[in-house]
Every structure is written in structure tokens, then in C-alpha cells.
Design brief:
- The protein is mainly alpha-helical.
- Helices cover about 80% and strands about 0% of the residues.
Amino acid sequence: MSEASDVTTPDPAAWRDGVRTGIPTLFGIGAWGLVVGVAMIKSGLTLPQALGMTLMVFAGSAQLASLPLIAAGAPIWVIFATALVVNLRFVIFSALLAPHFGMLPWYQRLHLGFVSGDISVALFLQRYPDPAPAPGKLSYLKGLLYPNWGAWQVGSIAGIFLGNAVPAEWGLGFAGTLAIICVMVPMVVSRPALCGVLVAGAVSVLAAGLPYKLGLLAAVLIGMITAMAVEELGDKFAPAARKEGQG
């Protein structure tokens, strides 16, 4: 059996393991979807438009960022640019997953990319940091992705139909934020990642007053540039530091 077959051969035990790993996050995902569903109705989208958006987009942060712009009648390029920048992290996710599943046909990779979410990708990479082929790897990923996608759609569609019936003071949106924080914090183990997160957080607060939520764009871009710069500088000066230590 080839290494690719080891990865792609269905493995029910690995699939169940992925489901069990992702279960603690599903409530937060569903609650976050509920908030986005309510937000879509409150922003003025019709029922078919809201249902179409949640089924075709599947990107909560980009949806939440673009909805105020839609409601405010912002130019279409601003809406697209905002969604694009907010979702730039999926380029990084794709680069991280490519060594694991690059052998799959393009349509399978496209499908997996469509149902991928932040938490699922993070949990998968915690389990499989090494891209070397391993039995059940694809089944484990699917066990994370499909329940995550289902929880999001159930919450989002429920929010669409509930509409204004859900009071804003319930603060359900914070449940989704907590779910992401619980996964993100253990991953901030390197100096570049920590610097990027701290700078992005500071910029998002300082630039909160910018129109069209442009502060969010600035925070994402500056945080990414900071992390890349710190990593580049670390690689540049590390050999010199080692030589001094040896001397």
C-alpha cells in the first residue's frame, strides 16, 4: 500500500477520534453561527439572501465584517477587500495543510478547503504537526470538519429564522470568541506568532474608530507583517548569536 493510500483510506476509528476531539468546540461554533444568522437579518438581508450567504460563504468573521458595510451601503470594492483580507489566514491554513494532502485531486482539496474552519485546522495541526503520511489522517480531518460545518449551519440557520427574537444582551457572540481563544492561545508558542498577535490586538484597538471597519484590515495586515518580520530577523541573527555563544 502506498503512502498516499495510508492517508486517504477511510478509517472509521480515526474519523470518530476527530469527532470526539472537536465536540467541545461545537457549542461555541453553533452560538457564533447563531449570532451571524441574526446579524444577517438585522443588516437588511432577505431570508433567501441570508440562507444563500450562510450556505455558500461559510466564513463567520468575513460575514460579520462585511455585514455592517452592506448595511451602510459601502462601495462593493471595500466589502470585497474587507472579506478578502479577513480571510487571508486561510492562505496560511492552505499552506500548512498542503504538505499533508497535496496528493489529493484538486476537487477534493477544493471541497476540504470549503468546509475548513479555524478551529478544525488548528486541532488537526496539533494532532499532526508532522506532514509525513500517516494512516487515518484524512479521516481524522473529516471528523473535525463535517461536525464543525454542521454546527455552524444549524446555528446560523436558526439565527436567521429567529431574527430579532434573540436579545443582543445575551452575548452569544462571545461564546464563539472564547472557543477560538481556547485553541489559539496554545498555538502562540513562538516569538513571531506572539509578536504578531500582540501588534494586531493593539492596532485593532487603536484603529477601532476608522470607517468601514478598516481598523480590522489594518490589524490583520500589520500583525502578519510583524510576525513575518520577526521571523525573518530571527533567522538572520540566529547564526551570529550561536557563533558568539560558541566563541
